[in-house]
C-alpha cells in the first residue's frame, strides 16, 4: 500500500522534511537565546535606572570603558559647562524620528577633569549641514547636572561611520578618547545623557528613557519555530495516509469496473 513512498516525488519530499525539522529546531533555539539575552539586558537597564544616583567619578575616570553594569546608571556631577568647545553630533533622531543633532558640551568638574554631556536633541536644517547650527546656550556658572552614564560610541557598536572632513564643530560619534585629544584635557570615559536640570526656554530637547527590548517576541518566535518543527512529521504522515487512501480507492474503483464488464460471448 505504501510502496509509492519509494517514488522520486516522495523521496524528495521526505528529504526536505528531514532537513526542515532540525533547521526549525535550531531556529527556535536561536530565538530562545535571543530571548535570554534581551531579558538579561532589560534586567540590567531596570536595575541601573532604579539605582541611587552617585557622583560620576565613582564609576568612571579618564580612559575608563563603561561596562554593561554601569550603563544607564544615574550619576551627578558638579562643575560648569564650557560652550566654547561644544560640538554637535550629526544624524541623530528624536522620539518622532526627525533627523537633527545631539548637543555635546564639555562639563568641567571642580577638579579640572572633563565630563562629556549630551544635552539633548535639536532639529537640523539645510544650512546646518555645512555650518554650525544654532544651539541653545547651556546654564552659566557652577551647577550640578544629572544624567545617565553611557559608553563611548564606536563604528562597531553603533553602525555609524566616523566620517572625516566634516563642517567645523560637527562630529559623528561621541567618543571620550577622541574628545580628549581634541580638547587636550583629561576626559572621563563615556559620557552622560543629561536628565536634569529640566529644559527651560531654548534648552535642547532632553533624551527620553532608554527603551526596553521586546524579549517576549523572541520567546513567541521560538515556540512558533518548534511548533513548525513538530508539524512537519505530522503533515508528512497526513499526506502519506491521504495518498495511500486515494490510491486504495482508485484501485477499488478499477476492480469494481473490471468486474462489472460483461463477459465476452
CA-CA gap between termini: 35 Å
Q: What is the averaged pLDDT score?
A: 89
Number of domains: 2
Radius of gyration from the CA trace? 32 Å
The total of helices stands at: 4
Global outline: elongated
Strand content: 15-25%
Q: The biggest beta sheet, please?
A: 5 strands, mixed, barrel
Low-confidence stretches: none
Give the H and E element order: HEEEEEEHEHEH
Strand order of the largest sheet: 2-4-5-8-6
- By DSSP, the count of extended strands is 8
- Helical residue percent band: 25-40%
The SS-based structural class is alpha/beta
What does this structure look like?
The structure is a single chain. The chain has 265 residues and is an alpha/beta fold. The protein has two domains: 3-43 and 215-248; 51-196, no CATH class. Helix content is 38%, strand content 20%. It is built from four helices and eight strands, in the order αββββββαβαβα. It has a five-stranded mixed β-barrel. β3 (87-93) and β4 (99-109) form a beta hairpin. It is elongated.
Amino acid at each position: 500500500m505504501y510502496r509509492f513512498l519509494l517514488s522520486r516525488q516522495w523521496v524528495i519530499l521526505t528529504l526536505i522534511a528531514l532537513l526542515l525539522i532540525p533547521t526549525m529546531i535550531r531556529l527556535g533555539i536561536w530565538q530562545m537565546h535571543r530571548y535570554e539575552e534581551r531579558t538579561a539586558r532589560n534586567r540590567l537597564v531596570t536595575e541601573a535606572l532604579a539605582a541611587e544616583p552617585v557622583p560620576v567619578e565613582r564609576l568612571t575616570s579618564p580612559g575608563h570603558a563603561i561596562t554593561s553594569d554601569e550603563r544607564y546608571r544615574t550619576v551627578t556631577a558638579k562643575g560648569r559647562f564650557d560652550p566654547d568647545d561644544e560640538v554637535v553630533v550629526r544624524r541623530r533622531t528624536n522620539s518622532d524620528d526627525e533627523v537633527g543633532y545631539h548637543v555635546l558640551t564639555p562639563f568641567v568638574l571642580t577638579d579640572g577633569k572633563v565630563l562629556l554631556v549630551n544635552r539633548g536633541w535639536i532639529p537640523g536644517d539645510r544650512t546646518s549641514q555645512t555650518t554650525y547650527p544654532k544651539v541653545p546656550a547651556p546654564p552659566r556658572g557652577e551647577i550640578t547636572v544629572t544624567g545617565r552614564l553611557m559608553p563611548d560610541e564606536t563604528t562597531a557598536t553603533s553602525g555609524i561611520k566616523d566620517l572625516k572632513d566634516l563642517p567645523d564643530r560637527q562630529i559623528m560619534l561621541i567618543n571620550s578618547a577622541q574628545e580628549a585629544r581634541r580638547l587636550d584635557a583629561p576626559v572621563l570615559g563615556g559620557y552622560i545623557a543629561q536628565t536634569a536640570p529640566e529644559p527651560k526656554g531654548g534648552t535642547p530637547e532632553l533624551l527620553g528613557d532608554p527603551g526596553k527590548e521586546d524579549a517576549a517576541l523572541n520567546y513567541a518566535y521560538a515556540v512558533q519555530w518548534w511548533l513548525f518543527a513538530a508539524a512537519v512529521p505530522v503533515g508528512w504522515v497526513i499526506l502519506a495516509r491521504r495518498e495511500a487512501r486515494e490510491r486504495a480507492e482508485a484501485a477499488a474503483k478499477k476492480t469494481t469496473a473490471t468486474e462489472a464488464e460483461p463477459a465476452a460471448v
